Amino acid sequence: MTTTAVPETTIPTAVPATVVLDEAVPARAAWSAVVRRGQFLTVTDLHGNQAVDCLLYDAHDTAVRYSAADTLQASGSVFVSTGTVLMSNEHTPLMTVVADDCGRHDTIAGACSKESNTLRYGHHTWSQHACVENFLAEGARHGLGKRDLVSNLNWYMNVPVEADGTLGIVDGLSAPGLRVVLRAEADVLVLVSNCPQVNNPCNGFDPTPVRMTVTERTGATEPAATTEDGPR
Predict the structure, then answer these.
(1) 210, 31 Cβ separation under 8 angstroms
(2) Which residues form a coiled coil (predicted)?
(3) Which pLDDT score, from 0 to 100, does residue 3 have?
């Protein structure tokens, strides 16, 4: 297990917590873990301006997985931030964003792939590693394949949406040490691709490590309560 010192941020400490898992994910690498109901996942942008592509699945039934469409419909916003409930394709809550240093995150731009790199940036990029390849390699460890990949979350990626509906990938809003904290509303398998993209500004053209920390309430006996429409 690798740990990395992180500066203090503005996120308040809600309750005393026990660290269950604390790992640094190298630049361009993949990561996965099961976050149990009631536990918290903190994603820390160690160096700033690093996109972190993320997929969520019900740990007991991976046919139930993150749905960008259900999440946007439930939240009424094209951006993800504090209070957003990350919904499944069954319109059930998977995780809730309980704290966010950055302000907003993307869930409409998808993940980079060899195919999209070639289309956007030219055939010379075909050999470059991409998020889809990370998801496929890490997902295979959990019995997931290409058909299980859906439109994902992009923590810290800045994708403004203009009045006419156009969007772009521009310089990030993040900074070193900023964090986003998620509470699991079910047992959730989390897949992460620490984005290797170097052809647009989503990583400042220089991918860097991030930190993934799972904590739980110290002495807690009951996980966070949920209803059919989301957390209480």
Answers:
(1) no
(2) none
(3) 38
In a domain, residue 141? The reply is yes
Asked whether residue 232 is domain-assigned, the answer is no
In 10 A of CB 201, how many CB atoms? 16
Q: Is the pLDDT of residue 12 over 50?
A: no
Q: Which of 51, 82, 77 is nearest to 171 (CA)?
A: 51
Task: Please give the tally of structural domains in the chain.
Answer: 1
In a domain, 5, yes or no: no
Please name every residue paired with 23 in a beta bridge, in sequence order, or none if there are none: 212
Tell me the two tokens of residue 136: 């496929």
Express each pLDDT in 134-164 by its tens digit: 999 999 999 999 999 999 999 999 999 888 8
Mapping DSSP onto H, E and C, the string for the chain reads CCCCCCCCCCCCCCCCEEEEEEEEECCCCEEEEEECCCCEEEEEECCCCCCEEEEEEECCEEEEEECHHHHHHHHCCCEECCCCEEEECCCCEEEEEEEECCCCEECCCCCCCHHHHHHHHCHHHCCCCCHHHHHHHHHHCCCCCHHHCCCCEEECCECCECCCCCECCECCCCCCCEEEEEEECCCEEEEEEECCCCCCHHHCCCCCCEEEEEEEECCCCCCCCEECCEEC
Q: Which domain holds residue 60?
A: 17-218
In a domain, residue 231? The reply is: no
* HSE toward the beta carbon, residue 100, CA cutoff 13 A: 18
